[in-house]
Amino acid sequence: MKISERAQQLVRTRTPFVHATVVRAQQPTSAHAGDEAILLPDGTIEGFVGGQCAQNSVRKAALGALQSNESVLLRVLPDGDLQFPEAPGAAVVVNPCLSGGALEIFLEPQIPAPLVRICGATPIADALAEMCELVGFGVQRGAAEADPLDSPSDTTAMVIASHGGPEAELIRAALDAGVGYIGLVASKIRGASILDELGLTDAERARVRTPVGLPIGAKTSQEIAVSIVAELIQAIRKDGLTVPSSPVSVVSEALDPVCGMTVAVGPDTPHLTVDDVDYWFCSSGCRSSFATTKTDS
């Protein structure tokens, strides 16, 4: 499968990953400009952005990019020649395992977009779905009679725009699922009445927005949709609303006993067990050298 096809597959399944692209390579590195790979949250590398020595440096930097959700231009050098401009988003790694040359690799994290569950089959629900897609949010539609939450752990926001039906049940389900943004399209009086029926605590009541949307004087379905999306953006960008996604693994590190390099322990990290002691290496070369030493001794 091509890297582009794999990336599209991960986007569809809402799996976070890092797209790594070699932008410059100096001989005698094995990678070439244009080589690319995908790095998954568990440290797995799919594709090619250099040999095993370079992969360890790329893996560590990519996991950091996933956690910060910030792109990184990584330069991997074989020695202490740090002639690389210091700038935001740039990083230098000295890799003693490299035999020569240098690599510059652009690491771009791909974090799933906020997923908005819209309940209802009304003009406002239709307009809201279009507006969410326009700003890049994921959309999940459901009628009021449907199972309220198909994937609660992945849902950033739930907006009920059904103008009737089991609105109270949907709100209760969203609260129980821990959805961070819950909105009910209703007048102030009707919304308060629905919340009163639920007997919510003050903390729970504060989590439900009704009337939902910023108070911009919206009248039409499209204007109401704009006000809701604007409020949701504000909640994410300013108020700290969390966008759920698959967790990034905290990959452990180990010291290569041959070259002294710190390596990220992942599924494909060279490994050897000697006398019930586990060792990890930056490359198969270091592993072979270590194994030979242990055999000779």
From TrEMBL:
Domain (TRASH): residue spans on this chain: 256-294
InterPro entries: MoCofactor_Util/Proc, TRASH_dom, XdhC_CoxI, XdhC_Rossmann_dom
UniProt name for this protein: Xanthine dehydrogenase accessory factor
Superkingdom of the source species: Bacteria
Source organism: Nocardia amikacinitolerans
Any Pfam family: XdhC_C
